UniProtKB/TrEMBL annotation:
One of its GO terms (biological process) is fatty acid metabolic process. The lineage of its organism: Eukaryota, Metazoa, Ecdysozoa, Arthropoda, Hexapoda. This is Peroxisomal multifunctional enzyme type 2. Residues 9-202 form the Ketoreductase domain. GO terms for molecular function: 3-hydroxyacyl-CoA dehydratase activity; isomerase activity; oxidoreductase activity. GO terms for cellular component: peroxisome. Coiled coil: none annotated. It is found in: Peroxisome. The chain holds residues 1 to 319 of 716 of the full protein. Keywords: Fatty acid metabolism, Isomerase, Lipid metabolism, Lyase, Oxidoreductase, Peroxisome. Belongs to the short-chain dehydrogenases/reductases (SDR) family.
Amino acid sequence: MADLRFDGKVVIVTGAGAGLGRTYALLFASRGAKVVVNDLGGGRHGDGSSSKAADDVVEEIRRNGGTAVADYNSVIDGEKLIKTALDNFGRVDILINNAGILRDKSLVKLTDQDWDLVHQVHLKGSFKTTQAAFPIMKKQNFGRIIMTSSNSGLYGNFGQANYSAAKMALIGLAKTVGIEGARNNVYCNVIVPTAASRLTEDILPPEVFNELKPEFIAPVVAYLCHDSCQENGSVVESAGGWAGKVTLVRSNGALLRSSIQDGVTVEKVAQNWDRITDMDKAGTFGAIQEVTGALIENLEGLKTSDVSQAQDSPDVFDF
Ligand code: NAI
């Protein structure tokens, strides 16, 4: 297979001064892209700022013969990052929303500030950069956007209520951005990484930490951003040299009414609980229209079911 390259493409990587973002920036640059290396250069908890993190990565890219420019803005000012790309390279093709912080505390101890800062950086920041880049991408009929989620968002994690809420929200954002951009070849996907970085250095056991190089994940992100990749609105988990698609599944469920006249009672829910939660015949839906379609099919089924049986239970709103 010929090398998948990014010549002529302008890539913005947020939080590219360290960890995963740095690795993404280096890979894109090594494959011909011009890279905006964004990093606020703050602490792990969102404190402080410094130009050093971004500068070091830009220098490394240039040393390797690549093209890059630093941007020190917070992603919360997303439009400024896009301006940096336009001012320096005249376009923006690929946006990797990667910047992140942690402010872990158990639910009761979380302050408003812990909640707001984490949401600002992860969710609002991704919204701001994406909103600013989106019209440019649509106009040029090409764009690839990545959101960064986390298993903490997908499954929850003790002490990360703020972070997991923001990380799951990014999946909703990505899916809608993908839908709104699809007609103009602007696709948006989500990466769920697990990698050795300063965010995970005291969370992952040392023997696992060493096997989780960001370099194992960067090619997955790069492929999702290539012209040839038609994936859109997907969530892809990757770690340690493995990648797989993640999707929501829904059980086949149970109809809680036997006819259109029938009502739903708490007892019927209880009696059907095993079927409601039976995942044996669980399925996935590709779009909201499919979910609505399944709902309408259920209602149609009720209309054609035995009406005489329904007359025995006239409790349509039996709360
Ligand atoms: P990292 O801490 O090594 O890198 C994050 C970078 O974002 C830092 O250089 C930091 O200065 C920058 N940053 C923070 N706030 C910023 C802001 N407001 N504007 C611009 N830059 C800002 O972390 P890591 O591990 O590389 O994480 C990257 C992304 O991957 C984050 O979104 C994180 O939540 C996510 N993630 C990481 C996992 C892991 O195992 N490392 C697991 C799941 C998700």
